[in-house]
Amino acid sequence: MIRDGLITEAGQDKAGGPERTRYELTDRGRADLAGWLGQVEEPAPFVQSTLFTKVVVALLAYDESTARRYLAAQRSAHLARMRALTAAKDDSDASVADVAAADYALAHLDADLRWMQTTLDRVAALSREVTS
Amino acid sequence: MTALLEAVDVTKSYGRTPALRGVSMTIASGEIVAVTGQSGSGKSTLLHCLAGILRPDAGEVRFEGRVISTASERERSRLRRTEFGIVFQFGQLVAELPAVENVALPLLLSGLSFEKAAEFAMEWLERFEVADLADDLPGEMSGGQLQRIALARALVMSPAILFADEPTGALDSLTGEQVMRAVSGFARESGTSVLLVTHSATVAAYADREIRLRDGAVEPVEVLL
């Protein structure tokens, strides 16, 4: 970012720990950041995740029941992670930022879980398609 | 952990439509268990059988080792009033009674004086941070407030187990979170068991473990290759 002229060195900090270099945004960096913040991320049109790849590979290399077992096991793992995040939110030391970060992860895991459940219901049809 | 509540090979049909096909499960004392599954998987029927609202066609439900599925309606009614607390998706409060009297109702049915019952009810309303609504009628309250009052009513008899059927199903996510935190916080503090029926993974994540139903049967825990 220094090389690109987006930030510049603004001094040294030493507050009870090792010395740290402080940086600040240049005008160009501020404009660049504003441009990045002003753009929404492109919503992904297809589920191209590892999860989807594993389901298809399971169907191609094995069979429907292997794909179902994978999805069910992945579902359990996702729910276990959601339990841990939910418990972390209830921690009395959790800041609002911690809770919001956990909410973000929980919402994405929940979306994955709903996709897994729907895919479990579609495994037979998906198998026919990918193996035809 | 020993089982507080146990279903052994429970079967239930509505006419010729099977709802539960030989369900076996346990809930230990102090444990929060989520029963999940798609619509029509049998989760609400299982809750109704476990809570003594429905009688199974076959199999047994045991509470503290005693078979309750064949007990008389009078005995099951006593259990529902004293040992089981029940909350549904929509609070099902008595529309004509103010919040404090809704919460006091189970105590009044157990023979407590109105004064004493109202005093206990106020303590529970305070615990769920809705004491300021004590004199309001259910029709004047939001969904989150109704569920907190329904929870206070379900817990006022200090039941051994709370049954909650989609307790946040009608609430927005933040209000639902507040209700779930109130439920799980109280359960962990008091050692009350909770059987939570939900189709939401976010709600199921408040539980210690999940029992997943599919077509009226418990889905086995899957083992990979």
Could you characterize the architecture of this molecule?
The complex is a heterodimer of chains A (132) and B (225). With 132 residues, chain A is mainly alpha-helical. Chain A has two domains: 7-38, no CATH class; 50-131. Chain A is 65% helix and 10% strand. Chain A has helices at 27-37, 50-61, 64-90, 96-131, and strands spanning 7-13, 20-25. Chain A has a two-stranded antiparallel ribbon. In chain A, helix 2 (50-61) packs antiparallel against helix 3 and helix 3 (64-90) runs antiparallel to helix 4. Chain A is elongated, with a radius of gyration of 23 Å. Chain A starts with 6 loop residues before the first strand and ends with a helix. Chain B is an alpha/beta fold and 225 residues long. Helices cover 35% and strands 26% of the residues of chain B. Chain B has helices at 43-50, 73-82, 99-109, 114-127, 143-155, 173-190, 201-204, and strands spanning 3-14, 17-28, 32-36, 58-63, 66-67, 84-87, 161-165, 193-197, 209-214, 217-218. Chain B has a six-stranded mixed β-sheet, with helices on both faces. A four-stranded antiparallel β-sheet of chain B has the order 2-1-4-5, covered by helices on one side. In chain B, helix 4 crosses helix 5 (143-155). Chain B is globular, with a radius of gyration of 17 Å. Chain B starts with a strand and ends in a 7-residue tail after the last strand. The mean pLDDT of chain B is 92. Classes of the chains: A mainly alpha (132), B alpha/beta (225). The A-B interface holds A 62, 66, 68-70, 72-73, 76, 78-79, 82-83, 85-86, 90, 106, 109-110, 113-114, 117, 121 and B 38, 181, 184-185, 200-202, 204-208, 210, 219, 221-225.
Strand content of chain B: 25-35%
The low-confidence parts of chain A are none
Helix content of chain B: 25-40%
Number of strands of chain A: 2
Series of H and E elements of chain B: EEEHEEHEHHHEHEHEE
- Quantity of strands of chain B, as a count: 10
Structural class of chain A: mainly alpha
What is the distance, rounded to the nearest whole angstrom, between the alpha carbons of the first and last residues of chain A?
A: 50 Å
- Assembly type of the chains comes to heterodimer
User: What is the number of helical segments of chain B per DSSP (H or I, 4+ residues)?
Assistant: 7
> How far is it from the N-terminal to the C-terminal residue of chain B, by CA?
31 Å
Q: Which stretches of chain B are low in confidence, meaning pLDDT under 50 for 5 or more residues running?
A: none
> What is the number of independent domains of chain A?
2
Into which percent range does the helicity of residues of chain A fall? Answer: 55-70%
Return the average pLDDT of chain A rounded to an integer.
Answer: 87
Number of helices of chain A: 4
Radius of gyration of chain B equals 17 Å
If you average the pLDDT of chain B, what whole number results?
92
Query: What would you call the structural class of chain B?
Result: alpha/beta
The percentage of residues in β strands of chain A lies in 5-15%
